[in-house]
Amino acid sequence: LLTDLAYLALFGNALIGSIPSDVGMLTKLIRLDVSENSLTGGIPPQVGLLTKLTHLALFKNSLTGSIPSSVGLLTDLDVLVLFENSLVGSIPTQLGMLANLTVLNLHTNN
After folding, report:
1. Above 90 in pLDDT, residue 3?
2. pLDDT above 80 (res 1)
3. Of 4, 25, 32, 67, which has the fewest Cβ atoms less than 10 A away?
4. Alpha carbons 92 and 99: distance in angstroms, whole number
């Protein structure tokens, strides 16, 4: 496994399937961008284990379910873009605790 990986950019590749829960093992990840693909399923709660993450971009996919509250554990996060998916439910209150968050884009969801 690529445990020293800091930057993972797979945007715009027509990827299919779901985001694996194993993504939580990439604990040195600073930037994760898998936007503009055809990913389905939910955002795995294990994303909350990526405590060094500053940028999380999952926009323009077909992700479903709710935003996991574990995203609120990402205290270094400054960019969170999840627009144009099929996410449902309320915005987790934990996101309000992300003091470094400067960009939050959730438009065109359910």
Report:
1. no
2. no
3. 4
4. 15
- The structure tokens listed for 64 are 């479903």
pTM of structure: 0.95
Residue 42 in tokens: 């939910």
Q: How far is CA 76 from CA 25, 29, 54, 95, in A?
A: 17, 11, 5, 12
Tokens of 49: 């284990």
Q: Which two tokens stand for residue 32?
A: 């994760």
DSSP string across the chain: --TT--EEE-TTS--EEE--GGGGG-TT--EEE--SSEEEEPPPGGGGG-TT--EEE--SSEEEEPPPGGGGG-TT--EEE--SSEE-SPPPGGGGG-TT--EEE--S--
